[in-house]
Specification:
It is a single chain. The chain is α+β, with helices and mostly antiparallel strands. The protein folds into two domains: 73 residues, Glutaredoxin (3-Layer(aba) Sandwich), CATH 3.40.30; 134 residues, Glutathione S-transferase Yfyf (Class Pi), Chain A, domain 2 (Up-down Bundle). It has eight helices and four strands. The chain has a four-stranded mixed β-sheet, with helices on one face. Helix 1 packs antiparallel against helix 6, helix 1 packs antiparallel against helix 8 and helix 3 packs parallel to helix 6. The structure holds glutathione. Glutathione binds next to helix 1 and helix 2.
């Protein structure tokens, strides 16, 4: 049975795993699944919280993008995106956790006003997110190498995550906080260089279409 990545291309977590599969050259299929248990209670049998992405494998379903990525690395050793050395691998995992827990999840508190037409957030909320996000980014800056890749001289899972999380986080800074939250990091040049990679360019192009599809769905109230 083929490996199937389930979710939608407007999701950066989905695209992180998709980029990994493409960079590794692993054969997979995509199944369009929208989030939310309200409209689709049956989804809970595959994704208990109604979140995407999840991976349908020959053994069953795996939820949580980082767990999916770890599974893919262990089952498909070709073109590894995790170092074999345990310490180096831990350094890659650290970067992914900083990107997701201390940056993306913080920025997500303002995704409503930034991307989905929600009313502006209260000033106290803006300041709280600004402070926490900048603290997370300052911590990440101490770990990230940009050498030229996030973890050093090799493309890893930290790049799959960074390429997909940087733009949404930067968007919250620009659209809601009115601030370049990455002013002290070479994020713009990094993203430009990464888009030279054919698989990154493919995922980014499909993400654009996926976002348009998502916005049309939201506008249609479907
Ligand atoms: N920790 C999860 C986060 C996934 C996530 O939040 N996905 C979003 C789409 S980008 C989602 O499913 N949102 C719907 C919801 O939270 O109910 C992962 O890494 O897979």
């Amino acid at each position: 049975m083929a490996l199937t990545l389930c979710g939608f291309a407007g999701s950066n977590y989905y695209n992180k795993v998709k980029l990994q599969l493409l960079e590794k050259g692993v054969a997979f299929e995509e199944e369009l699944v929208w989030t939310g248990l309200k409209d689709n209670p049956a989804l809970s049998t595959r994704s208990p919280l109604g979140k995407v992405p999840f991976l349908q494998t020959e053994h069953g379903v795996i939820v949580e993008s980082s767990v999916c990525s770890e599974y893919v690395e262990s089952v498909y050793p070709q073109n590894p995106l995790m170092p074999r050395d345990p310490f180096a691998a831990a350094k890659v995992r650290e970067l992914v956790v900083y990107l997701e827990l201390h940056m993306e999840l913080v920025a997500r508190e303002l995704f409503g006003p930034a991307y989905f037409g929600a009313p502006p957030a209260a000033p106290e909320k803006l300041e709280q997110v600004r402070k926490t996000l900048k603290k997370g980014i300052a911590g990440f800056a101490k770990l990230a190498k940009f050498g030229p890749y996030i973890a050093g001289d090799t493309f890893t899972l930290a790049d799959c995550a960074a390429i997909m999380h940087f733009p949404t986080i930067a968007g919250v800074g620009k659209l809601v906080l009115q601030e370049d939250v990455f002013a002290d990091l070479p994020v713009r040049d990094y993203l430009k260089a990464m888009k030279e990679r054919p698989m990154v360019a493919k995922v980014v192009a499909e993400a654009k279409l996926g976002n348009e599809q998502l916005m049309a769905k939201i506008r249609g109230g479907k």
